């Protein structure tokens, strides 16, 4: 469809090559050639293909619903300038910037991303990006293992359950032992139950999966006393705009998910993972790193550096196997951060605090509803529901409202807890609508029993 | 010379973008808050000029030819971009109930089945984020498989010496010992050497086919048979799949596991180094280990994410896939169908052979056989005669607006240039490329000293990599730092 060859081109080229036919160039050993048509649909003209895909997109009714879902993927305002500049052909269709002379645009943008991540987390150094928050967690754990040679990890039960599930997947193959740090009744990591002896690192997320803002300091102190590292996880990067930085809280490695910086929900990806660390761990960072240098004429230039850590040089001794990362997603986040700036980012974060507080107060004022935890939250919180949360969520879905994530999905014992999220895009009317629906459907559900 | 964002802007130049909600301290206790947020406030026009400036300092497929071996830098159809931008996809939350995500689920299901058919696999997972992520996923599956059948002591991964660096790196992550297999003088895996390394410790053999020299491993059936006889598994690295789609299938060659790079073969844009997408396929015997969730279709023809896969290794990323990348690849698949995909493979091979034929009198083509989608050539003779290296030729190409080929890899060929034109380039572009290369070879003979100066016309010229490496080792020079006086403040 997009190949430009005419029959005449093909004949002329075959002649230069000295081959009889296209098939002769691609001849195969006996038995390997596909002989029968495969179970693949016949091609569609481009106009029809466009219509088909649009039809599939339109079939996703949930994309149009009023949503209070968060849980690691957040609905935020994307200033139109962000995709306008970030998805230009010059960025979108470029390759990994191995050729510095031909890639200064991408390289400088990565350098700027590394700087933003460092400034937001308070860390010294950041890499060029990782697949997502969950795989960033895996890489942070591997860095810790390399730092102290230990093969056990203590991770808070307040870390996103999908992140923990991914860590478990890798741990099974890497011979890594994962122990959970339990939560206290207020939804926070119970550092008094943490036994950090012999662990490579202690992992805590803030705000945690229940929306509660964690103080990492006790976990960091326990980790350091035991000769382990403290790894902080951030699933809602917008919170970094206002909360104490991971570095100030004692983290050695700060990692997480930056989807909130201008990336669409996109049914789960691609997003962009980040990882940053204190200077002493720079050589253990996974993946690409861009450094500043000069060219032969003395001009400022940027270039991939410390490639001796990476798989294409170091092969089985590399710090990570990662090659392709999330360059374009990191660029989108970089353009987002440039566009909103310090003023915008803090204002947007404050708007999230405001809307989440309004939503929490309104929902918790409903008869039978209560806040599940007492402490401060950012833009998400758990509400205890009078009837099973999954029942309520299902009933609201029928009215075009995604009320939140029933926690029973990941914590079977929490079947009356609903994780709700409000952002700067949540309006007062939205809050009225969901509270009215929750009240009504609770009544109905009770009546039905 | 564009400034860094951090050297631009001014306090007070920023906008709030949303209604004023007061400061965070209105909502949270002060001890939870950061003291400052030291990122710049810029006017939108500054952002615009900055990123326009940066965009002008990049090569890209929409502007430049990328004969970049092993990277399949084909044209990215704009249909893909339109498809990935539909609000029904972009606004869909990963925790949306299955009922409200039927279109997305159907797309994923169709894609899984289509890839299974095209590559001869029983089942696919679309979850892995990139090729290397697909590799580690498959290694985790292999490890789980051997543990399940009581052969957990198998711990050797065989990798040809021409393999991608990700192969050994991925194998090492699950604790496999990597053993390299040499190539023959024909540029193929040495079957005898391979056999001699097979024993009860063999877990996996990772291969590409065609291999990274662009040559089809014609002994592949014998190889997969030998590895299976030793109780090992065969893994197909799909980096070079652009040569074979619709022509032959890794499943029929005897591979048990494979990954694809949708950002190579299926025209998802590279984005300056990602995001990619690295689906993993598995044979019937191994499919139960694939990451979960996987999309299933119920008797009533509705689609759902299936989490009930007790033997699955578990999820490998936080959500279900690089969905918007899958949408792009899906667009590519449905406009081509099997016949269109086959034709693209044939034309990719045609283009590579055409360039090979056009340049073999200028540079040594060590394996002068019909190649597949790519080939390697060597500047070793040129270097002996003139001192000019493959690197210098590559840098010279940049001045002509052509991206450099892959260089100095695979290591088995000295002064190596690996060339993969892809099927989307016109004969005219390939002719012009050959002429540009011819001019550079001539310049190498006429004025070899001048070649070390190239490029002359790129936004920057050759850069000092050694200095930055020494600094970076200490964690310096990897980000903008505030000037010392501001730091004191």
Features:
heterodimer, A: 449 residues, alpha/beta, Aspartate Aminotransferase, domain 1, Aspartate Aminotransferase, domain 2, 2 domains, seven-stranded mixed sheet, four-stranded antiparallel sheet, 15 strands, globular, B: 489 residues, 3 domains, three-stranded antiparallel sheet, 16 helices, 37% helix, 10% strand
Structural description of this entry:
The complex is a heterodimer of chains A (449) and B (489). Chain A is of the alpha/beta class. Chain A contains 13 helices and 15 strands. In chain A, strands 2-8-7-6-5-3-4 form a seven-stranded mixed β-sheet, sandwiched between helices. By secondary structure, chain B is an alpha/beta fold. Chain B folds into three domains: 51 residues, no CATH class; 257 residues, Type I PLP-dependent aspartate aminotransferase-like (Major domain) (Aspartate Aminotransferase, domain 2, 3-Layer(aba) Sandwich), CATH 3.40.640.10; 106 residues, Alpha-Beta Complex (Aspartate Aminotransferase, domain 1). Chain B is 37% helix and 10% strand. Chain B is built from 16 helices and twelve strands. Chain B has a seven-stranded mixed β-sheet with strand order 1-7-6-5-4-2-3, sandwiched between helices. In chain B, strands 10-12-11 form a three-stranded antiparallel β-sheet. In chain B, strands 8-9 form a two-stranded antiparallel sheet. In chain B, helix 6 links the parallel strand 2 and strand 3. In chain B, helix 4 packs parallel to helix 10. Chain B is globular and about 70 Å long. The model of chain B has no long low-confidence stretch (mean pLDDT 96). At the A-B interface, helix 1, helix 2, helix 3, helix 4 and helix 5 of A face helix 1, helix 2, helix 3, helix 4 and helix 5 of B.
């Amino acid at each position: 469809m997009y190949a430009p060859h005419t029959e005449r081109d093909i004949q002329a080229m075959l002649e230069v090559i000295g081959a009889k036919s296209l098939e002769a160039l691609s001849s195969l050993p006996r038995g390997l050639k596909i002989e029968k048509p495969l179970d693949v649909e016949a091609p569609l003209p481009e106009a029809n293909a466009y219509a088909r895909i649009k039809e599939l997109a339109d079939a996703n009714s949930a994309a149009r619903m009023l949503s209070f879902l968060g849980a690691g993927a957040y609905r935020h305002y994307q200033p139109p300038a962000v995709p306008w500049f970030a998805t230009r052909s010059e960025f979108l269709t470029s390759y990994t910037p191995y050729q510095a002379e031909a890639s200064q645009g991408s390289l400088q943008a990565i350098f700027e991303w590394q700087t933003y991540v460092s400034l937001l987390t308070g860390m010294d150094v950041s890499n060029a990006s990782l697949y997502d928050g969950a795989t960033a967690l895996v890489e942070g754990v591997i860095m810790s293992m390399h730092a102290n040679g230990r093969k056990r990890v203590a991770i808070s039960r307040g870390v996103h359950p999908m992140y923990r599930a991914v860590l478990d997947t890798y741990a099974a193959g890497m011979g890594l032992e994962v122990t959970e740090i339990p939560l206290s009744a207020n939804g926070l990591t119970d550092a008094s139950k943490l036994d950090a002896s012999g662990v490579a690192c202690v992992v805590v997320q803030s705000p945690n999966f229940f929306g509660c803002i964690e103080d990492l300091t006790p976990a960091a102190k326990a980790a350091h006393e035991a000769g382990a590292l403290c790894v902080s996880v951030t699933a809602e990067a917008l919170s970094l705009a206002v909360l104490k930085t991971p570095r100030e809280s004692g983290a050695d490695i700060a990692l997480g998910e930056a989807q909130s910086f201008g990336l669409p929900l996109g049914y789960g990806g691609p997003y962009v993972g980040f990882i940053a660390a204190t200077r002493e761990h720079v050589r253990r960072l996974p993946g690409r790193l861009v450094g500043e240098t000069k060219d032969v004429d003395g001009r400022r230039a940027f270039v991939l550096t410390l490639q001796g850590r990476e798989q294409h040089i170091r092969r089985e001794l590399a710090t990570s196997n990662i090659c392709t990362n999330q360059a374009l997603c990191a660029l989108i986040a970089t353009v987002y951060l440039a566009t909103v700036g310090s003023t915008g980012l803090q204002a947007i974060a404050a708007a999230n605090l405001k809307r989440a507080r309004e939503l929490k107060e309104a929902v918790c004022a409903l008869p039978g509803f209560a806040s599940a935890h007492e402490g401060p939250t950012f833009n998400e919180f758990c509400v205890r529901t009078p009837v099973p949360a999954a029942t309520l969520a299902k009933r609201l879905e029928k009215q075009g409202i995604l009320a939140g994530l029933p926690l029973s999905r990941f914590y079977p014992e929490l079947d009356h807890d609903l994780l709700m999220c409000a952002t700067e895009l949540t309006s007062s009317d939205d809050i009225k609508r969901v509270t009215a629906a929750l009240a009504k459907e609770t009544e109905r559900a009770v009546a039905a029993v | 010379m564009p400034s860094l964002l951090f050297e631009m802007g001014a306090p007070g130049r920023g906008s709030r973008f949303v209604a004023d909600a007061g400061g965070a301290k209105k909502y949270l206790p002060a001890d939870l808050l950061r003291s400052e947020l030291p990122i710049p406030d810029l006017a939108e026009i500054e952002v615009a000029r900055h990123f326009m400036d940066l965009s002008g300092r990049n090569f890209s497929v929409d502007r430049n030819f990328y004969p970049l071996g092993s990277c399949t830098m084909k044209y990215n159809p704009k249909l893909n971009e339109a498809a990935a931008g539909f609000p029904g996809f972009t606004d869909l939350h990963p925790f949306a109930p299955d009922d409200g995500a039927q279109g997305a689920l159907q797309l994923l299901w169709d894609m899984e089945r289509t890839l299974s058919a095209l590559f001869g696999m029983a089942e696919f997972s679309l979850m892995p984020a990139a090729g290397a992520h697909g590799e580690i996923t498959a290694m985790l599956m292999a490890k789980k498989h051997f543990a399940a059948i009581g052969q957990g002591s198998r711990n050797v991964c065989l990798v040809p010496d021409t393999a991608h660096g990700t192969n050994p790196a991925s194998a090492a992550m699950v604790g496999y010992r990597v053993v390299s297999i040499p190539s023959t003088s024909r540029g193929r895996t040495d079957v005898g050497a391979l056999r001699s390394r097979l024993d009860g410790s063999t877990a996996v053999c990772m291969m590409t086919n065609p291999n990274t020299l662009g040559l089809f491993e014609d002994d592949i059936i014998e190889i997969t048979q030998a590895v299976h006889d030793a109780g090992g598994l065969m893994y197909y690295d799909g980096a070079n799949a652009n040569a074979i789609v619709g022509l032959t299938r890794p499943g029929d060659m005897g591979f048990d596991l494979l990954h694809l790079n949708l950002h190579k073969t299926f025209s998802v844009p590279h984005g300056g180094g990602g995001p990619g997408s690295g689906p993993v396929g598995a044979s019937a015997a191994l499919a139960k280990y694939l990451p979960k969730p996987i999309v299933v279709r119920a008797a009533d023809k509705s689609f759902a994410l299936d989490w009930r896969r007790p033997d699955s290794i578990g999820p490998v990323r936080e959500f279900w896939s690089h969905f918007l990348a899958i949408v792009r690849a899906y667009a590519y698949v449905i406009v081509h169908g099997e016949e269109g995909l086959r034709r693209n493979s044939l034309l990719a091979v045609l283009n590579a052979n055409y360039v090979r034929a056009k340049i073999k009198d200028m540079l040594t083509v060590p394996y002068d056989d019909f190649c597949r989608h790519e080939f390697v050539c060597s500047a070793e003779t040129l270097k002996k005669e003139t001192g000019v290296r493959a690197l210098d030729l590559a840098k010279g190409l940049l001045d002509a607006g052509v991206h450099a080929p892959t260089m100095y890899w695979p290591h088995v060929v000295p002064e190596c240039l690996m060339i993969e034109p892809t099927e989307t380039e016109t004969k005219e572009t390939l002719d012009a490329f050959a002429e540009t290369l011819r001019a550079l070879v001539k310049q190498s003979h006429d004025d070899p000293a001048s070649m070390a100066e190239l490029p002359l016309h790129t936004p920057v010229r050759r850069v000092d990599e050694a200095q930055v490496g020494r600094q970076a080792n200490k964690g310096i020079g990897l980000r903008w730092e505030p000037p010392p006086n501001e730091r004191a403040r």
